[in-house]
Amino acid sequence: MPFPINTEDLVFALLQRAAEAGHRCPTNPQIAAHLSQGEFQISATSVPKIMGKLARQGQIVVRVYGKNWRDVTICTGPHSEKTTMAPPHGGKPHTVITATGRTKTLQSGESRLTSRHSRWSIPRIFTKG
Fold it and tell me: Which residue among 16, 69, 98, 112 is buried most deeply as judged by most CB within 10 Å?
């Protein structure tokens, strides 16, 4: 593996180590603290953007569960198909982020592909009635 030189490389390397060891996926504050040990100073609120970028690039799949838990599956490299620890409370993820987008699971169990702009409604033609 080449020497990591940017935040995405450092986060991906951290996730690979966690998956290889079968540990819990690092939380956003843990990832930010890890990056801050080096030359990068970022806040925990910036971590989801990095995770999303890695997912869009096809390097990881992120599954988000309740109770502040996520697991990550590595999709490329020597640790491909390894996953961080599953949530001890079980259950299904409410959000899955992959290279093709973000899927949210509704309470009914139905899945829906969403995007950054999912809050926008579909244009409708209004008529006077």
Answer: 16
